[in-house]
Design goal:
Shape: globular
Structural class: mainly beta
Helix content: 10-25%
Protein name: Tellurium resistance
Low-confidence stretches: 1-20, 57-66, 73-87, 131-136
Order of helices and strands: HEEEHEEEEEEEEEEH
Largest sheet: 7 strands, mixed
CATH class of one domain: Mainly Beta
Number of helices: 3
InterPro entries: TerD
Strand order of the largest sheet: 1-11-10-3-8-7-6
Radius of gyration: 19 Å
CATH superfamily of one domain: sav2460 like domains
Oligomer: single chain
Mean pLDDT: 78
CATH topology of one domain: Lipoxygenase-1
């Protein structure tokens, strides 16, 4: 094997594993991981959504790069995020989960409509709460994998509630914390300015093996469009959040 091939494979492995040795980054090149094979098919799986606002692409990346070259200390300053109207962008991202159990029952766990689910009884999926401001803790869903034999498939998704579509203005990260082994990270890093929802990853029970697969598919509608895309077959209606 050539030296450069060896170096490239080494760097690629570091990229896939993420910044730290205790994380795995699911990418297009490495889209799936088995929780069963890493001994994490039991206990509680914690799925966290966190996000922060990032600078608009107006003006182009080349201009931003030039400014950083002239003023390198700007790299350490917080970015100011502006919308088309030069106002501050405020995006409320929500984390949800479509579920299908082994007995055929289907449904959704999400903040909208207060469908919070349950960890100790069907669907064995529980939403901890609704973060409307992108705080450090974000939003978290727990999956009780002690009942993984009763779970057929789960689809975790993120949507923008009742705001101007702005996935391209946010840096969103979904992190899975299994009961053992490294955490799994999935970035919503593709440009989809007008999208309102994104299917982030699926968790399927494939002949007793729990497999996490990166999806990162943006759609321009809401849950009903994700439903059609993945063939869930639920009936959807307009929902509203209670005021904070």
């Amino acid at each position: 094997m050539a030296f450069w091939d060896s170096l490239w494979q080494s760097r690629s492995a570091q990229f896939d594993m993420g910044v730290g040795a205790n994380s795995i980054a699911l990418t297009r090149r490495r889209p799936s991981v088995s929780l069963t094979k890493q001994g994490a098919a039991t206990g509680h799986l914690r799925v966290n959504l966190s996000w922060r606002m990032r600078a608009s692409d107006f003006g182009g990346k080349s201009r931003q790069s030039g400014q950083l070259l002239r003023h390198p200390f700007k790299l350490f300053k917080p970015e100011v995020v502006q919308a088309h109207t030069q106002g501050m962008v405020n995006v409320d991202l929500d984390l949800g989960c479509l579920y299908e159990l082994a007995d055929g029952s289907k449904g959704v766990v999400q903040p909208l409509g207060d469908f919070l689910g349950s960890a100790n009884e069907p669907p064995y999926v529980r939403l901890s709460g609704d973060d409307r401001f992108g705080s450090g803790t974000g939003e978290t869903i727990y999956v009780n994998l002690d009942h993984h034999a009763e779970i057929k498939r789960l689809l975790f998704f993120v949507y923008i509630y009742d705001q101007t579509p702005a996935f391209d203005r946010t840096h969103a990260l979904v992190t899975l914390y299994p009961s053992s082994g490294p955490r799994v990270e999935i970035e919503l890093d593709e440009q989809a300015p007008q999208a309102r929802s994104c299917a982030v990853f699926s968790l399927e029970n494939v002949k007793g093996e729990l497999v996490v697969r990166r999806e990162v598919k943006f759609v321009y509608g809401f849950q009903a469009e994700l439903d059609r895309l993945y063939g869930w077959g639920l009936q959807w209606g307009r929902g509203y959040k209670t005021r904070a």
